[in-house]
């Protein structure tokens, strides 16, 4: 029996590796395709093959994308808006998780359910009503037009993870803190929050990645370049009758680079946090 089991494992392991390699190549191919086309000239774009072998590598596409695409301004806006969204989502989700999971009040379960129902609402389903509300309040073409929906639609997932992690923290710690005279905010931010580091890291990374490349809301609510985010750089090279496709691919590569780098560096925190949250939940 043992020999049969070893033979099976010897056969299944190579098959498993082959399947995983094929899946990895399929997942990575869009990035390879993007980089390949970004280093070609616009005349070489229209090819029958999946990839292009450029006659000459066009590094100038990236220079043009960086200089003529308002890249630094849009990058600054993306970092500012996404950074504020991450901070607000973490703060609100910690306090909401504590209020709904630890504090005893009649509507705690109802409020938690209503907040988690946000997981079922697509972010772009609220484009029109949000636009009418922002127009009435004078919030269109401001940072708040993006910040409010980014925080609102990231909060349900963050609340789910925070609640799952918070359930593993002993209640006795809070009771001892109350006996020592700690107030509610001191309990949350000095006792509970340091124990939520894995979930905080996961929430921060997932909020950043989910909102980084968002374009539909940004294009609906923003009209002037003041608060436009990084995906708008692509439109700088789109004309009425023709477009510079090679530079557009370069812009897309530059736009995707921060998210890809963050994911590669912090991938362990994402998978670990989600897995731990699921088990504890």
List strands and helices in order, with pairings.
Elements: H1 2-38, H2 60-68, H3 71-101, H4 108-116, H5 127-137, H6 144-166, H7 171-179, H8 184-192, H9 197-212, H10 216-221, H11 245-280
Helix pairs in contact: 1-11, 2-11, 3-4, 3-6, 3-9, 6-9, 6-11, 7-8, 9-11
Structure description:
α6 (144-166) packs parallel to α11 (245-280). It is globular, with a radius of gyration of 24 Å. Helix content is 70%, strand content 0%. It has two domains: 2-38; 70-280, Orthogonal Bundle (MetI-like fold), CATH 1.10.3720.10. The two termini are 39 Å apart. The protein has 281 residues and is mainly α.
Helix content: 55-70%
Content of β-strand: under 5%
Q: Which class best fits the helix and strand makeup?
A: mainly alpha
Reported for the largest beta sheet, the result is: none
Low-pLDDT runs of 5+ residues are none
CATH architecture of the largest domain: Orthogonal Bundle
- Count all strands and give the number: 0
From the N-terminal CA to the C-terminal CA, the straight-line distance is 39 Å
Q: How many structurally independent domains?
A: 2
The CATH superfamily of the largest domain appears as: MetI-like
CATH fold field value of the largest domain: MetI-like fold
The run of helices and strands is HHHHHHHHHHH
Q: Which CATH C-level class of the largest domain is it?
A: Mainly Alpha
Which descriptor suits the 3D outline?
Answer: globular
Using the CA coordinates, give the radius of gyration: 24 Å
Overall pLDDT score: 83
